Amino acid sequence: MKSFINIFLLLFLFLFIYSLLGMNLFYHSFNNLKIEFRENFDSYDNAIITVFQILTNSAWQNVLYLAMNSDVSNIISALYIISWILIGNYVFLNLFLAIMLDEFYKESQNSGKNADEDTEEILLKQKIKNLEKPAILPMNSPNFSGYCSNLEIEENAPIIKPFLVKKESKLKLICEKIIFHHYFELFMQIVVLLSCLSNVFETYFTSPFATEILIIFDHLFNFIFFLEFFIKINVYGIATKKDSYMRNSWNIMDFLILIVTSIYTVYRTLLNSDNKVRIEYYKSRDFFFF
User: Fold this and answer.
1) What do you get for the CA distance between the two ends of the chain, in Å?
2) CATH class of the domain whose range is 170-284
């Protein structure tokens, strides 16, 4: 957040300036057709919402249409809106994204170093296990008698217990093999891309059959993301160690997205089933529109 403070302050300053400038230019001029549009500069609240709408390029052409049909000169209206698009969208938002991607790149570099350290730690544990295996000589070995004769045992010698390493569970070893596999990250990136495409298709395909298919895919993607979360907490732990799951900002973001998408998927499934029950009820009552 330290990297974003200056850009946030500058962005809010320009939002404030363009809101006041818009109120000075277009005050009560967007409603000259006696229609109350949401995009107007009649108050400071509406002005800052309108300026923010232009900043995000969300239906900014509506504001341009109202400005061109207002009492203000078309040249001034066009210069006002186009200048704010160039300054706000192509400068501030891109600068914000550049800073965010740079910080995520630094974080990914640190997480890569932690992964290398984890791999070295696993190899070290494996070497310790190999060293702990006793060198047992067979009875018919020619060196067996010599091996035994060279042992000198004192009467009051202290009994030294061997250094024991806690055996890792098979589940953790399987999770380590999965997460350190070179195709794991590629697979998760493909799943994220498919999940984004599913959200895009949800906007355009509104038929009941398409909705059912998209809900099934949402459940599948959520299951894969939950499985990734389960594997990572088994390998890294939750928050106890330095390189735990919740100590990484990327993992925290993934965890929050997993919770939100799971709640949304459950809500969407319940809403869809409720709509089906309601439609069946209307059909059973023989309403005229069915």
Assistant:
1) 56
2) mainly alpha
Q: What is the C-alpha separation between 130 and 143, in angstroms, rounded?
A: 22
What is the token pair recorded at 255?
A: 């965890």
- Please write the tens of the pLDDT for every residue from 86-144: 888 888 888 888 888 887 777 777 766 666 566 667 777 777 766 665 555 454 555 44
| CATH code of the domain made up of 5-108 | 1.10.287.70
Say if residues 244 and 229 touch (Cβ distance below 8 Å).
Answer: no
Give the torsion through C-alpha atoms of 112, 116, 121, 125, to 10 deg: 130
* Residue 257: both structure tokens together: 């997205």
**In b/e form, how buried is each residue of 208-220, taking b as 16+ CB within 10 angstroms?**
eeeeeebbebbee
pLDDT digits (tens, 9 = 90+) for 25-69: 888 787 665 667 778 888 888 889 889 988 888 888 888 888 888
Distances (CA, A) of 154 to 93, 147, 157, 159, 252: 78, 17, 5, 10, 58
Domain ranges of the chain: 5-108, 170-284
Q: What is the mean pLDDT of residues 174-179?
A: 86
3-state SS track over the chain: CCCCHHHHHHHHHHHHHHHHHHHHHHCCCCCCCCCCCCCCCCCHHHHHHHHHHHHCCCCHHHHHHHHHCCCCCHHHHHHHHHHHHHHHHHHHHHHHHHHHHHHHHHHHHHHHHHHHHHHHHHHHHHHHHHHHCCCCCCCCCCCHHHHHHCCCCCCCCCCCCCCCCCCCCHHHHHHHHHHCCCCHHHHHHHHHHHHHHHHHHHHHCCCHHHHHHHHHHHHHHHHHHHHHHHHHHHHHCCCCCCCCHHHCHHHHHHHHHHHHHHHHHHHHHHHHHHHHHHHHHHHHCCCCCC
